[in-house]
Design brief:
The chain is an alpha/beta fold and about 240 residues long. About 40% of the residues lie in helices and about 20% in strands. The chain folds into two domains: about 130 residues, Rossmann fold (3-Layer(aba) Sandwich); about 90 residues, Arc Repressor Mutant, subunit A (Orthogonal Bundle), CATH 1.10.10.10. The strands form three sheets. The protein has a five-stranded parallel sheet, with helices on both faces. Strands 6-7-8-9 form a four-stranded antiparallel sheet, covered by helices on one side.
């Protein structure tokens, strides 16, 4: 996959053997890699070198993987950085928290390096499809959003939305399963020159849920961060 060859991956893992094994397999597949052995070092590299994806161990010295995940998702310029978490099976509850905080995928230890590289490639492909600039419509269960006509329909019936409500809906549909912080949503929908409070996002999300009840369970609030749209359409 030529489009993946230039991708830069940061491995944040305190076990040197695992970090070197991942580095070997990823570079063998054409990826560029960096490594960090502590949470603090990893977060500094994320800010300074802007990797395309981070492989993040859950248990790390100085700052654990959950804290890094939360810091990434709440820092505007890196908030959409793809995160693949490494966890031990005994850390299942922490894995769930990690996914709620915005990790895109996870792999449990012990793992096959080949399987992990496959998951990395699959994650990149999924994200590239989501970032397709040519996409002009979204379907989410009975909800159809037509960007070119600026229409939102549920079961074929048009739902009147304000420009900001429509913009929020578009952002959520564009990044299903990913945590979008209030700052990210403000900047995407209102623009960088907006000086209001992040509570504005909450008010518009509430309005969106009232107008489209399907979204009441579909849009999940992530405490102290923002919102994400469930990848699975809730049963009606």
């Amino acid at each position: 996959m030529p489009s993946l060859k230039s991708k830069k991956i940061l491995i944040v893992e305190d076990e040197a053997d695992i970090a070197q094994l991942l580095k070997l397999y990823l570079e063998k597949d054409g990826f560029r890699t960096m490594t960090a052995s502590t949470g603090v070092e990893g977060f500094k590299l994320i800010k300074a070198d802007r990797p395309d994806l981070v492989i993040l161990d859950l248990m790390l010295p100085e700052m654990d993987g959950l804290e890094i995940c939360k810091k990434i998702r709440s820092t505007l310029d890196i908030a959409l950085l793809p995160i693949l978490m490494l966890t031990a099976k005994a850390e299942e509850s922490d894995t769930i928290i990690g996914l709620e905080l915005g990790a895109d995928d996870y792999v449990t230890k012990p793992f096959s390096p080949k399987v992990l590289v496959t998951r990395v490639k699959a994650l990149f492909r999924r994200l590239e499809r989501a970032d397709d600039p040519k996409q002009t419509s979204y379907a989410y269960g009975p909800l159809l959003v037509d960007l070119s006509r600026h229409e939102a329909l549920v079961d074929g019936k048009e739902i009147p939305l304000t420009a900001k409500e429509f913009g929020l809906l578009e952002q959520l549909l564009h990044h299903p399963g990913r945590v979008l912080t209030r700052d990210v949503l403000l900047n995407a929908v209102w623009g960088y020159d907006y000086y209001g409070t992040t509570r504005t996002v909450d008010v518009h999300i509430r309005r969106l849920k009232l107008k489209i009840p399907l979204l009441d369970d579909a849009i999940i609030s992530i405490k102290s961060l923002g919102y994400k749209l469930s990848e699975q359409v809730p049963a009606r």
